[in-house]
Amino acid sequence: MKHYKDSNNKLFGFEEGQEVPAGLVEITKQELEELGKVIAQAEFDSLDYYRQRIYSYPEIGEFLDAWVKGDESALEEYRAACLAVKAKFPKPEGF
């Protein structure tokens, strides 16, 4: 696939053999590499919610202890704590 841009820097991709509309300019390898870096950084930044959740969830040992003991009250507390973390750090749309 080759990548092109218009005068507003809107990007388009065309497969081999597809007709490229007039007015589009093929982007350079350097531009494509820079675009890849920008996209990768944006994807990484969007995972902030994930990192925040990891450090906020209760310890898994608490769940295992409650499960092994059959302690429904402790299991419900664990579930509630997990749901509170999910509410505090919601998943971005599109994930």
Key attributes of the depicted protein:
single chain, 95 residues, mainly alpha, three-stranded antiparallel sheet, 3 strands
Please tell me about this protein's structure.
By secondary structure, the protein is mainly alpha-helical. The protein folds into two domains: 1-45, no CATH class; 46-95, no CATH class. The chain is 56% helix and 11% strand. It has four helices and three strands. The longest helix has 17 residues, at 29-45. The protein is rod-shaped, with a radius of gyration of 23 Å.
Describe the structure in brief.
The chain has 95 residues and is mainly alpha-helical.
- N-to-C terminal Cα separation, in Å? 26 Å
Low-confidence stretches: none
Derived from helix and strand composition plus strand pairing, the structural class reads: mainly alpha
How many structural domains are formed by the residues? Answer: 2
Helix content: 55-70%
* Order of strands across the main sheet: 2-1-3
On the 0-100 scale, what is the average pLDDT?
Answer: 89
The percentage of residues in β strands lies in 5-15%
Rg, Cα atoms, Å: 23 Å
* Largest sheet entry: 3 strands, antiparallel
Number of strands: 3
Tell me the series of helices and strands, N- to C-terminal. Answer: EEEHHHH
Put simply, the count of helices is: 4
